[in-house]
Write a sequence for this structure.
């Protein structure tokens, strides 16, 4: 793959929040996991475990757990300044768009593998290396899904401690494993809107940090407010 093809793939990857019920081939799921297991990880520790869920009853239970958590999340969001709230919190949560998606994949990490890192790393940056390793695998899954013409959604609420407790009980996940996040796969019900990204010149510094590019608190706030108005991932 040349750079232009790679860049096109990166730009094409988008988070989708509405899925058709149409099934996806089993080989697509296998291909996505195959890509993820080649992701970089701290000390090549490969801390990942993948739980593939297709059963409708199990998926519906997961959705119910996340909806229950979603209401508490919404109430917390309403305590923020109005312009900084996520637009979706204005009203009580509806049925999530991923409910009909044919496949959920929950990515778990085995934290015992932090012991694979150099000792000082274990003490100093063990948690961040562990999270970065899982994030790498998760991103590979998104990109692989995109190459297969599938839509994907990053359902981050699955990492919340309350949700983890219920999902571990539901799915028989050992307590020593940590749920990183859930990937939802399927065919989209809509075309994603264009995504805006910051200009490269605003964020790149050569040789040393360019103090002239440091954004004030007001600029950061205005940027976040702009994200809220055209929220896209």
């Amino acid at each position: 793959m040349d750079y232009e093809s790679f860049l096109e793939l990166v730009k094409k990857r988008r988070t989708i929040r509405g899925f058709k019920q149409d099934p996806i081939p089993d080989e697509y799921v296998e291909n996505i996991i195959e890509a993820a297991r080649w992701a970089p990880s701290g000390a090549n520790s490969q801390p990942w475990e993948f739980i593939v869920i297709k059963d409708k009853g199990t998926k519906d239970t997961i959705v119910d757990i996340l909806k229950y958590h979603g209401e508490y999340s919404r109430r917390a969001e309403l305590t923020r300044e109005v312009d900084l709230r996520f637009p979706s919190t204005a009203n009580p949560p509806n049925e999530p768009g991923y409910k009909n998606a044919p496949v959920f994949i929950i990515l778990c990490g085995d934290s015992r593998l932090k012991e694979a890192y150099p000792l000082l790393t274990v003490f100093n940056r063990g948690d961040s290396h562990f999270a970065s390793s899982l994030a790498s695998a998760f991103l590979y899954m998104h990109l692989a899904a995109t190459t297969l013409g599938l839509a994907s959604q990053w359902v981050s609420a699955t990492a919340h401690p309350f949700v983890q407790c219920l999902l571990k009980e539901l799915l028989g996940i050992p307590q020593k494993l940590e749920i990183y996040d859930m990937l939802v796969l399927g065919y989209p019900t809509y075309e994603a809107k264009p995504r805006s990204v910051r200009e490269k010149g605003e964020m790149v510094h050569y040789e040393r940090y360019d103090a002239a590019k440091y954004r004030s608190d007001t600029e950061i706030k205005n940027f976040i407010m702009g994200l809220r108005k055209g929220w896209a991932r």
